[in-house]
Amino acid sequence: MNPGRIRTAAKADLDAIKAIAVAAEMFSVEEVGFFDEMFDGWLDHSLEDHQWLVTEDEDGTLVAAANYAPEPFADRLWNLYFIAVDPAAQGRGLGRALMDHIETALSERGEEEARVLVVETSSTDRYALTREFYRKIGYEEEARIRQFYGPKDDKVIFWKSLSQAPIQASIQVLSDALNANKPEVASNELGQPVGTPLSVVPDLGPPAESTMVGTACRLERLDVGIHGRDLATAYLAATDDADWTYLPYGPFDDEEAFLGWLGQVEGRPDPMFFTVVDQASNRAVGLASYLRIDPTNASIEVGHIHFSRELQGTVASTEAMYLMMQRAFDSGFRRYEWKCDALNSPSRTAAARLGFSYEGIFRQATHYKGRNRDTAWFAVIDSEWPATAAEYERWLHPDNFTTAGEQLASLTMVTRDG
């Protein structure tokens, strides 16, 4: 993929920048009117701290643009005011290349001038992929201002430290691995493109049911007698039913009803349910399963993920997903899938953070709870696993956390765009 040439914008670029912003549906025609004032201020040096960048193709056509500047009255904090890629040029990594360029430029200023880069976007479904993009390149959601842009439209604020050298090294390792593992297109005797040759995949059988042991958690095969009461307590501690919205079952009226359902799925070979047990407290705090286990094609899915509020956002929650992925690939599977309701933004965000590449949406794929479901597909394949595993292990290492348990550098996966 040609990432184009990034350069500082010129006065003649303004109309093209505005056209890109409108075409990318980042701004309306009326809203880009404020670009004129910002651009003029930059040219006459009244807004000289603003930085305008553009990406141009080999023929000189502008295909992407960005603007960033220091935040007034803040200590070495910079704000990305906008970034946009022409829809006709999307999928080439232009947005990532622009962000890398900006972060490198700010990092080279040193901590005396630049500590943090902040980006802001909308919470609506229209911007779900934008939020996924920021998370994939290492930005963390720091805050939300409710109904900032309008009813049911929050301002979502992301940030990233500009002094995360280990993160940048990890990004390069993952990116190199993905590029190195791009399959070459083979041709048959008729000159037609065909899939790369593949030795016969052995009939693998399902993954082992033995316990997967980590540092913060372990995963044990679901046993209602051992785990049921803990799980019921953990789930019922939630003050609302939001965690059940995108699952095809629940919420349950009481503990007895929940335990009855748990008994129905216990011991099934597919889906194969595991319980996440917190190592420190020795209590069951979540569920996850392997499903759609296809040994013939060496494909397997992770799903039915239901982490209690106590487990969500913890080291254990990430480690549990790492352990399950590790077992799948160690067992010989070629493909590890994640699927969710396309409207389930938290699940899509989690998939991207955990190293799954977005592959598209299957419209009207199924229905549940009286609602249609378009299904978003994500996957990791075996050639990507070594680099993905290395990033998990870097993040999970004790050296990445303070004595208070706070991470020093975020989990940063490089994935393919769908």
Strand order within the widest beta sheet: 10-11-12-13-14-15-17-16
Could you name the ranges where pLDDT drops below 50 across 5 or more consecutive residues? none
Helix content: 25-40%
Shape: globular
What is the class of the largest domain in the CATH system? Answer: Alpha Beta
CATH fold-level topology of the largest domain: Aminopeptidase
- Helix-strand makeup class: alpha+beta
Q: What count of structural domains?
A: 2
Instruction: Tell me the total number of β-strands.
Output: 17
Q: Main β-sheet: number of strands, strand sense, barrel status?
A: 8 strands, mixed
Q: CATH homologous superfamily of the largest domain, by name? A: Gcn5-related N-acetyltransferase (GNAT)
Radius of gyration: 23 Å
The separation of the N and C termini measures: 14 Å
Residues in β-strands, percent: 25-35%
Mean of residue pLDDT values: 88
Number of helices: 10
N-to-C series of helices and strands? EHHEEEHEHEEHEEEEHHEEEHEHEEH
Per CATH, the architecture of the largest domain is: 3-Layer(aba) Sandwich
